[in-house]
Amino acid sequence: MSMNNQGRPTSTGAATENTDFESFSGHKGLRLAEPLIFELGSTETTGVDVPEVGEFEMAIGGLERTSEIGCPGLSEPDTVRHYTRLSRRNYGIDMGVFPLGSCTMKHNPRLNEKMARLPGFSDIHPLQPKSTVRGAMQLMDELSHWLCTLTGMPAVALSPKAGAHGELCGVMAIRSALEARGDAREVILCPESAHGTNPATAAFCGYKVKAIPAKDNGRVDLEALKEALDDTVAAVMLTNPNTCGLFENEIRDIADAIHAAGAFFYCDGANFNAIMGKARPGDLGVDAMHFNLHKTFSTPHGGGGPGSGPVVFSDALKAHVPVPFVVKTDDGFDLVEDADDKSMGRLVAYHGQMGMYVRALSYMLSHGADGIRQAAEDAVLNANYVLASLGDVMTASFDGPCMHEALFDDRFLKDTGVTTLDFAKAMIDEGYHPMTMYFPLVVHGAMLIEPTESESKFNMDQFIASMRGLAGEAKAGNVDRFSGAPYHAPWKRLDETQAARNPVLRYSPEE
Ligand SMILES: *Cc1c(COP(=O)(O)O)cnc(C)c1O
């Protein structure tokens, strides 16, 4: 019987010739086929037992629906099975290594979930009288305190609901501050390696976007930045650590140059996981920075939960923060809900993602200040372990150690006939969610791997062994192993471009 390099059997021992048959059910072993819910149920049946409705008069003025709704009538057990079977198709952080760079897919401690489910947090309503939600306000205040302390910034807006939304909040505050001083500026500078949300946010806020080139060492070209800075520039949006997984070590000079030109420094804080407890953006000259609570402070994300993107502000911007925010009063806490003439006003309907606040604060309190620092150190250590362990078989894009993610490009695949996409698909056969690919755009065929602090050495060694094995296969010319991958997945190569450009979001029964 053949064994893998972990000493485990690679086949079941059953005769191999005969395993290609189709089952009668469409299921394959315990991997169950799952049709759409509409294809499962019948509109003729119903899963609920309600009495027939007698004669009644519609009160909606003739606007009632005349066609069938077409809801499938499934019983409760059939409904539960449908969604449970679908959920087993999901690859998640609770199933295995999820090395998606730039996303910080790390373990979500269950304690956070328990805290978020406390009825005093989970069962409250945003329109409840303030006197009945003092505890929630205290929690928001305490979370604000942690976020300000960790960044060395004086103010925070909790309400944005994702990283990209936080960017919008930050850039709106910058625009509001510029307008307040009667200084209409029209350009925002973004490095070439920026996450797509940075230029998108700038454009959404009505700014022209100009790209700043990077140097050979993967950092922003300070001289090029200085040249581009003039009195039309409203802000520079910069990610630090940057999207190549590198610390922008000239950040103080960058900040000084930005401020000398009268512009603001927006920092994309999606990679804060690498520096939390180690460096404070306020000390680095940042004027506004969002967190992705769902990345850095562990709360679930990626199809699994809502996001939350609080933004911290410097003294120069703090008057322009959105409402609502929590303030401490003599006898407790209060919510400021009305904007003064400097505030940008309201960004979301209510107060933001309460459940995420609870999870993030629970993460912070259970780690403590020293634990948070250690999480950052371990994240960086793990990424460097991956970088060092793969550096001889894959091509690292930049010299020297990285921060929390290791960036490779496709030079090691040159002349093999295998692309970054093929390589990523072959990782699925190995049982791994692929790393981030083709981002950042500044290196060719990028593969960005972020193990995070929550992977053990054992897990990383298994992952590294698979990656080394695949790199060896590619170099040995075994193109077939890649070109049709994933072979072991229920669906093979889907037309992702077509799916993104032409999404079919509505079920229509075939006549
Ligand atoms: C994830 C990410 C964002 C966007 O955050 P969302 O919460 O997905 O909106 C922005 N910039 C960088 C560098 C990121 O990694």
Average pLDDT taken over every residue: 92
Give the neighbour order of strands across the main sheet.
1-7-6-5-4-2-3
Number of helices: 15
CATH superfamily of the domain at 111-365: Type I PLP-dependent aspartate aminotransferase-like (Major domain)
Structural class: alpha/beta
What composes the largest sheet?
7 strands, mixed
CATH class of the domain at 111-365: Alpha Beta
Q: What letter string, H or E per element, gives the SSE order?
A: HHHHHEHEHEHEHEEHEEEHEEHEEHHH
What does this 3D model show about the protein?
- The protein is α/β, with parallel strands linked by helices and 511 residues long.
- The protein has a domain at 111-365: Type I PLP-dependent aspartate aminotransferase-like (Major domain) (Aspartate Aminotransferase, domain 2, 3-Layer(aba) Sandwich).
- It is 33% helix and 10% strand.
- The chain has helices spanning 37-40, 76-87, 110-116, 119-122, 134-151, 163-180, 197-204, 222-228, 251-260, 293-296, 354-390, 420-429, 457-475, 480-483, 496-501, and strands at residues 155-157, 187-191, 208-212, 233-239, 264-268, 288-290, 311-313, 325-329, 332-336, 395-396, 406-409, 436-437, 447-449.
- The strands form three sheets. A seven-stranded mixed sheet has the order 1-7-6-5-4-2-3, with helices on both faces. Strands 10-11-13-12 form a four-stranded antiparallel sheet. Strands 8-9 form a two-stranded antiparallel ribbon.
- The longest helix has 37 residues, at 354-390.
- The two termini are 50 Å apart.
- It binds pyridoxal-5'-phosphate.
- Residues 102, 162-164, 195, 197, 239, 243, 268, 270, 292, 307, 309 line the site of pyridoxal-5'-phosphate (PLP).
- This is glycine dehydrogenase (aminomethyl-transferring).
- GO terms for molecular function: glycine dehydrogenase (decarboxylating) activity.
- Residues 375-476 form the Glycine dehydrogenase C-terminal domain.
